[in-house]
Amino acid sequence: MDEAPAHRPAAPGAAPPGAAPPGLAAPVMIVGAGPVGMVLALDLAQHCVRSILVETEETSRGYPKGSTHNARTMEHYRRLGLAGRIRSTGLRPDQPADVTYYTRIGGHQLTRIALPSSRQTMAAVARAGVADQVPEPLHRGNQMFVERVLYQQVLATPGIDARFGWRCTGVEEHPDRVTAVIEHVASGARQQVEAAYLAGCDGGRSLVRDVIGVRLAGQGEFGTAYMRGPMLTSYVRIPRLKDLVDRLGWQHIVVNPELRCTFASLNGDDEFTFGTSRSSEMAGDDDVIRLARLGLGQPLDVVVLGRGEWTAALALVAESYGTSRIFLCGDSCHLFTPTGGFGMNTGIDDAANLAWKLSAVLAGWGGPGLLPSYETERKPIGHRNTAAARLLTQSVTSLPIPLELEDLTPAGQAARERLGQLLSGFDQEFSSLGVQLGARYDASPIVIGDGTSPPPDDPHRYVPSGCPGGRAPHVWLPGRRSLFDCLGPGLTLLQLAGQADTEGLARAARSQGWPVTAVRVDVPEARDLYHADLALIRPDQHIAWRGSRLPDDPWRLLATVTGHEGRPADAGRPAQPASAAT
């Protein structure tokens, strides 16, 4: 399946949009080069905006974290031209992504949630109908593998000044710029860096968040039970685990009265993450090996390659997503429990929202209301997604585990059958398409509503809708080209039917330097999905406006969706929002 080519930087000698004002090292400084920070830098580079990317680690991380790159994240990777490379990481193409529950890996299987392999998934995409909504399905590839792809792309991308092996030690905001002190970890050498804007992508213990005085608020840990407090995830090699199972899947989950734990496949062979509750008595690798063998049910060889501590059952969101020049992105503004795999993916969506707005403001076509809309749009999504993850966690932690579960008796057999039936309903954790694709910005000041109601927000079911504020519904175009591949780095006016005169909008765009491209979509299914002849799509693929004809004053339409609030610098127009034309 083809994916969109990455936008190319400006030619040498050209003055690219977003060039740094005199005296600044770059228009944007990014603190933290996890997946969110690297995607933000790459997205900015597509808009020809230079950035400085500062990361304490000397290279991409070699320790596993989450393995879920959801359908929306994969669409963003597609925009960056990286979806194919990322799909080549992780599980083998023919390895099913099954989730299987056991009393112990070598004991009784309780239930299996069958999920397709990557090859089967992409074959289904190739056969899907014109109006199929998932051009880039969820991918199971551990974050450490995907980060290597992002890291290599960052190093190869002109316009990204990648400072791996540097830490940010201080940040100060000024009316016209941000200054930061960075320190080379190995040598201790220090340097002051100036940028027009700064993005804190520096994780749950964010220095940037502390500097601007923002707190995380919400619900924290419950206690010490599994997925209700302190947890330990270990990177392990278990060569013979695959011999204990009928079919190696993605996750192998152990449930018994003595222990609850998870073995998640990393390479489709012998490497896994092993996750379990963390107690104060756990001293080192020997404890990990002991617990892993309890979960396996056999004394197999277990090699510990690394360990990481974290806290489950978190649903924390920053009270503010930033200031006028400093913004928070990813874990710096929301902390999740990992159930459902929503955390990193929400951060990638943050980066996509912030990147085009920073680019527009730096290029001169984004108005004073554009950057404030980042918090207006993304903070409610932070609350929505953390709540969805916490709800899934509560169903996992409240699971009843009978004491007779492992007994070789009729009572034990009956207990296993009852628990297996209950666990078979946990497939909702792995079918969260509504969370993945259903984020909406209905209350945004840069979205022009038309009086219609969006579909209900169902975490498990995504209903495509042309109602402004949501993700643009997808269609396959002739030649099996994705509609999303036709959307440019500016605004895109989709002409879905009819012969509407768009020249007035083109003139208004040219007069203010607003980048608008018109794309004709001759697919009847598209008109049926959008319920309008025209739709204006933002660079992050959300609908800004729709109608069957343009407003009488298209100037106001463009002014509103670009954050000018009806007041471009050279025109004294009244500050009235554009209304939808029907």
Name the features.
Glutaredoxin, 25 strands, globular, disordered N terminus, 582 residues, 3 domains, 14 helices, alpha+beta, disordered C terminus, D-Amino Acid Oxidase, Chain A, domain 2, seven-stranded mixed sheet, 22% strand, FAD/NAD(P)-binding domain
List the helices and strands and how they pair.
Blueprint: E1 26-31, H1 35-46, E2 51-55, E3 68-69, H2 71-79, H3 83-87, E4 99-102, E5 109-113, H4 118-127, E6 139-140, H5 143-156, E7 160-164, E8 166-173, E9 178-184, E10 190-200, H6 207-211, E11 216-219, E12 230-237, E13 251-255, E14 260-265, E15 271-277, H7 285-296, E16 303-311, E17 315-318, E18 326-328, E19 334-336, H8 343-363, H9 372-397, H10 410-424, H11 433-437, E20 476-477, E21 481-482, E22 491-495, H12 503-512, E23 516-520, H13 524-530, E24 534-537, E25 543-547, H14 554-561
Parallel strand pairs: 1-2, 1-10, 2-7, 4-13, 10-18, 22-23
Antiparallel strand pairs: 3-6, 4-5, 8-9, 9-10, 11-17, 12-15, 12-16, 13-14, 14-15, 17-19, 20-21, 22-24, 24-25
Question: Please, could you describe this protein's structure?
Answer:
This protein has 582 residues and is of the alpha+beta class. The chain has three domains: 26-90 and 141-219 and 314-391, FAD/NAD(P)-binding domain (3-Layer(bba) Sandwich), CATH 3.50.50.60; 92-134 and 221-312 and 400-426, D-Amino Acid Oxidase, subunit A, domain 2 (D-Amino Acid Oxidase, Chain A, domain 2, 2-Layer Sandwich); 440-561, Glutaredoxin (3-Layer(aba) Sandwich). Helices cover 27% and strands 22% of the residues. Strands 1, 2, 7, 8, 9, 10 and 18 form a seven-stranded mixed sheet that branches. Strands 5-4-13-14-15-12-16 form a seven-stranded mixed sheet. Helix 1 (35-46) runs parallel beside helix 8. The chain starts with 25 loop residues before the first strand and ends in a 21-residue tail after the last helix.
